[in-house]
What does this fold into?
Amino acid sequence: MSTEHSLTRALRELVQQQRTAALGTVSAGGAPFVSLVPYALDVQQRCLVIHVSGLAAHTGNLQREPRVSLLLSQAAPSEGPVHALPRVTLEATAESLLPDTPEALACRTVYLERFPEAAPMTTLGDFRFVRLHLLGARQVAGFGAARSLNGDEVRRALGPAP
It folds into this structure.
């Protein structure tokens, strides 16, 4: 019988089920900038992987300032309450990977497992894989079910299930 906390299971399920996140970066002028990014979970490295274009504003932002934030949320129903939607805000440091390195190729494999239709995009010269190393999180699993996690707790939660 697993002794894993129910909120930890809920966090893992949310990250595994969602496919996109709102990525928060800081612009050159210091303003917050939010964009939508698809992500993959690298369970072995316990990080998230995104694939970004050099033309995208968020790419320049995260290269200047690698501290980022991501918001993942369960989809909102078309009607009814939304205030208790399960969600998590992840704090991370972005690591842009050089193309064709073992690290980038490993990220490509993880990313294409989740998004096989993106294969042609992974060969374009202006795109890069980015590892998002998790530093902490604020999880809301429903009304009255919220907690903060440090980086070790988040990485443990998103690693292989016990």
Q: What stands out?
A: The chain has four helices and eight strands. The beta strands are 20-26, 32-38, 40-42, 47-53, 67-73, 87-96, 127-142, 145-150. The longest strand covers residues 127-142. The helical segments are 6-17, 57-64, 102-114, 151-158.
